Model the fold of this input.
Amino acid sequence: MQIHFIEGYIQQIYLVEYADKLLLLDGCCRADVDMVCDYITHTLSRPITDLKLVVVTHMHPDHAGGAHLLRSKTGAKIAAAKVAGQWYSGLDGILMHWSDMILALWVAGRKNKTKKNIWYSRKLSADHYLEDAELLPGFEDWQARHTPGHTDRDLSLYHQARSCIYVADLFVKVRGVFIPPYPVFYPNRYRSSLALVKSLKPNTIILAHQGEIDFQDIDFEKLENQAPSIPVTHWRSVKAKTKRALGLAK
Done:
């Protein structure tokens, strides 16, 4: 097994290569799909049909945006956490879906990337819905772990033999410091997810926006202390700003 690290539109892409198949650890952006296919055909000299599974760790544009298109191009199956309902459901979900795509384009601008089409369906149609601790279908050396908090359906992917875990956006690095992500919808679940990853004690932790980090370099106690006690989300921020503008804030 070899993990290929590819620079994506606004995040790292992790393509896992085996002798007879390929695994994508996250669904990446819609803007990354052609690059992933080109990497498989030109860099690895393999047919794109060797991509057998795409995991969607959560529904944000840089983690789910390319999944459906990759499936249509390669025939790969999609796996996601077994959580009831759709993340972007209802009117609030539609608005949040659009705001998350706008935020992704803002991040791209900060990275001096040109604007690209990153639209994707707000409703995920997966082929496999994974329970906590379930092995990935066709890739049984990887284990799906439920690590919610950032959203209600975050997955981390644990490889015991290599002693590494891909945690997607469980935490991020800003100005050289590891901090909780934004948003955090479920603070209590978030702390439990941190505790789970800490208990596994892998040699390395792989982040969606930072690469592979030594486990010993992560201060989990500091992350737990920095985690919010109440949800920190787009909508709470908008409501708070509106109240301040109207002079209603206490």
